[in-house]
Amino acid sequence: MNRGAALGILLVLGAGWGITQPLTKIAVSEGYQPFGLIFWQQAIGAVALGAIRLVQGKSLALPWRLWWFILLIALLGTLVPNSFSYKATIHLPAGIVSVLISLVPIFAFPIALGLRVDQFSGPRLLGLLIGGAGVVLLIRPESLPDPAMVFWVPVAMIAPLCYAFEGNIVSKWGTHGLGPGQLLFGASALGAIVALPLAIGTGQFIDPRTEWGAPEFSLVLSSLIHVAVYTSYVWLVGRTGSVFAAQVAYVVTGTGVLWSMLILSERYSGWVWLAMGLILAGMALVQPRRKETLAP
């Protein structure tokens, strides 16, 4: 694949992931709570991924001995981060949440050092400090439309922290022989099984027989986009390498902000733009440069 085509695909995938953030904002706009949203997101993802595997002639069976690992990925990849992210999205502009999601590599670096899957370097430490400075700017009362929103910024930061742990766990111990499609299907299926009683028990279950409007359609659309983009991302990694494909994170952040401005008419202060610039600069310095430092 030539670089121009690969870059074009990367931009499309990043824009696809980016639009899921304003769609999430719409999904929570009329009172839906995290566990109900997570159940349907996982259920829709499991059905879509299962259908893809069947079309490819692959089995839907999940090895019993690895259910613990699949559940761990479901917890760190969806159940825990989305529980906090959905709650924060109710109170924060979608563009702000998009910026905070980009903290994944900045969180991942110190975790990688602790797990001994990466080595210390001066430039990456500088990236960590620059990214941290961006977060400090973001939580200034002047940065947000309402100073009371400051409380929800650290809540939104729990999601990228979980993703950072997830990536480092996979980087250190691998996927125990599970392919990425099989792992995501299994995590979606087990995630739905765990989320269903939580949604029912907390009164957050979303009855699909309700009158459908923007929140319901947004939830389904964002779930399907995630499946399509993720499977395409895995395909791209196999053809361009993980280091090139990892640059999608910059596109996701930028387009997440732009989609939020276009769809939700959000506008941000100069402090937010400066914070985003610092966080992206920090992310550029912290990102691994060698293929072997990334999860297979």
Task: Give a structural overview.
There is one protein chain. The chain has one domain. It has helices at about 5-25, 35-55, 65-90, 95-100, 105-115, 120-140, 150-175, 180-200, 215-240, 240-245, 250-265, 270-285. The two termini are about 20 Å apart. The relative contact order is 0.23. It is about 75% helix and about 0% strand. With about 300 residues, the chain is mainly alpha-helical. The protein is built from twelve helices and no strands. The longest helix has 27 residues, at about 215-240. Residues about 290-295 have low confidence and may be disordered.
List keywords for this structure.
single chain, 296 residues, mainly alpha, 12 helices, disordered C terminus
The chain-level structural class is mainly alpha
Beginning-to-end CA distance, first to last residue = 20 Å
Mean pLDDT: 89
Number of helices: 12
Helix coverage percent of residues?
over 70%
Q: Into how many domains do the coordinates divide? A: 1
Give the number of DSSP strands: 0
Summarize the structure.
By secondary structure, this protein is an all-alpha fold.
Which helices and strands occur, and which strands form pairs?
Elements lengths: L2 H25 L6 H22 L11 H25 L2 H8 L2 H12 L6 H17 L13 H22 L6 H22 L12 H27 L1 H4 L2 H17 L5 H17 L10
Helix pairs in contact: 1-4, 1-9, 1-11, 2-3, 2-8, 2-9, 3-7, 3-8, 4-7, 4-11, 5-7, 5-12, 6-12
